[in-house]
Amino acid sequence: MQTLSQQITDKLRGLILHGRFKPGERIEEIPIAISMGVSRTPVRAALATLASEGLIDHLPKRGYLVRVFELDVILAAYEVRAVLEGLGCRNAAQRGLSEAQTQKLLQYLNEGDRILAKGTLLPEDHEPYQQMNVNLHNTLLEASGNPWVGRFVEQANHIPYTSDRIVLWDVSHEVILRSHGDHHRIIEAIIKQDTARAEGLMREHVYYAGVIFKNNFQRLMDARGLAGNE
């Protein structure tokens, strides 16, 4: 069971990753504590954790600032994710999936198919699709049998816009449909225990997500009133 500090850490991390706090924006203990209805102690611990993860920078006597990540740093994190998750899929294919893992993955594929069959992504579909995406990737990481793969992928996911928990909803429906098609092909390769294909498909899947982000980077920065750097 999560402690209060862990709950606040997860909530703040999510707000930062989803852009609710802008890069360079100041984060202070007291306003956060008041807005969340808690004391300063768990907020202080949460901010220290996020600073250790590299999401925010601590400035003596000035509190914390949301770290600014340049485009090349974000794309480098995509590169790391592609390699690690590709390795995870190779391992999962080599080990073979359990019946429970197979059923869960097929269930996630069906959930994504159902949502995308509408031909458009409605606002109420965003959270269910995002949760399906997270569950699918996490199940594949668990199936790898290598806890370090999941641990280092989690670190890469702490870089804004890199996480599998982030979906650029305003890209075309065809882009998200292609991404979910990747899920089908990856899982099919793993079930068939085709190690090379499983690894290659996952690498391409994450790489393509990075390409989509890069193509939309300046627009995202403009929408948030920030200057982007190519």
Question: In brief, what are we looking at here?
Answer:
With 230 residues, this protein is mainly alpha-helical. 69% of the residues lie in helices and 4% in strands.
**How large is the share of residues in beta strands?**
under 5%
CATH architecture group name of the largest domain: Up-down Bundle
What is the CATH superfamily of the largest domain? GntR ligand-binding domain-like
Tally of DSSP helical segments: 9
| CATH level 1 name of the largest domain | Mainly Alpha
Q: What is the N-to-C order of secondary-structure elements (H for helix, E for strand)? A: HEHHEEHHHHHH
Which term fits the overall shape?
globular
Query: What structural category characterises the helix and strand content?
Result: mainly alpha
Query: How do the strands of the widest beta sheet line up side by side?
Result: 1-3-2
**How large is the radius of gyration?**
19 Å
Give the strand tally. Answer: 3
For this structure, the CATH topology of the largest domain is: Four Helix Bundle (Hemerythrin (Met), subunit A)
Span from first to last CA? 42 Å
In helices, the fraction of residues equals 55-70%
Low-confidence stretches: 226-230
Task: Describe what you observe in this structure.
This protein is mainly alpha-helical and 230 residues long. The chain has two domains: 4-66, Arc Repressor Mutant, subunit A (Orthogonal Bundle), CATH 1.10.10.10; 71-223, GntR ligand-binding domain-like (Four Helix Bundle (Hemerythrin (Met), subunit A), Up-down Bundle). It has helices spanning 4-17, 29-36, 40-53, 71-95, 99-116, 123-143, 147-156, 173-191, 195-223, and strands at residues 26-27, 56-59, 63-66. The protein has a three-stranded antiparallel beta sheet with strand order 1-3-2. β2 (56-59) and β3 form a beta hairpin. α8 runs antiparallel to α9 (195-223). Mean pLDDT is 87; it is low at 226-230.
